[in-house]
């Protein structure tokens, strides 16, 4: 594949930012298309409208619209050599997948929650995000778009699990994650060593919004995690970084700061993912559980039930020694219930 990769997205989409930074790091030529307007004329439409949308050759060679960043990362790994974001050691690759999943499916709850729960955050997002679809717009039209767009997003907060009941869990979890990640960045520049993994780009994508766009979580980030704020800016373009094969950590002696980050996953992710999977399986109308001693309720989310299944399949695919190593780490960090 020699033609530039075509994708459409938006600066306000954490998954778009995740993939653009990954393409830059991997030095893969791409064409970034606005998510609306003439740029998309003649291109296929995805079955589900999600950002980013990649336009990649299908089995018959014709372009098809592809969404879902994690499988796209794995496809790019297969199609293009060099500067891999997947660790070569299978157990570490599993850990990369777990952290990426947490970023994509849990940190995004904080992103939507802060953006559409606080007046200053709502005002900024409602005004700026419509302009990213085309800044040539009258004041009257922008005001109308901002009102309509913000109302739609606020009304959909329940979908990601943000509500009056879950707000304390989401906000305390984000604060603890910032504190743990800030401490980790005093030891090494990326989550799994001296080179970025897929999970780094997933965390980066969410933090482009949480740490550097939405006022309330940005202020918190600046207050307690200045290294994290700076890391987000550095992650945007890592095309000049020269990774080495030995730049990954060894799971025989993982940094304690990394274990502390994973422990934040174990503190909140298993109860929600397990309760959600049960609700999806039984057809329940509501997910009900307790997280960190506090109540949690949200609608079932079928996609996240699939995510849990994929994590379990990844663990099962490990050989016996790697599985034992991962199981010990999962037990030590509170993540073991995901795989029980």
In short:
The protein is 56% helix and 9% strand. It is of the alpha+beta class and 340 residues long.
Description:
With 340 residues, this protein is α+β, with helices and mostly antiparallel strands. Helices cover 56% and strands 9% of the residues. It contains 13 helices and six strands. The protein has helices at residues 14-25, 69-79, 90-115, 119-131, 139-155, 157-160, 167-184, 198-210, 215-224, 226-235, 256-282, 302-316, 320-333; strands spanning 5-9, 30-34, 53-57, 63-66, 287-291, 294-298. The protein has a four-stranded mixed β-sheet with strand order 2-1-3-4, covered by helices on one side. Strands 5-6 form a two-stranded antiparallel ribbon. Helix 3 (90-115) runs parallel beside helix 13. The protein is globular. The N and C termini lie far apart (41 Å). The mean pLDDT is 96.
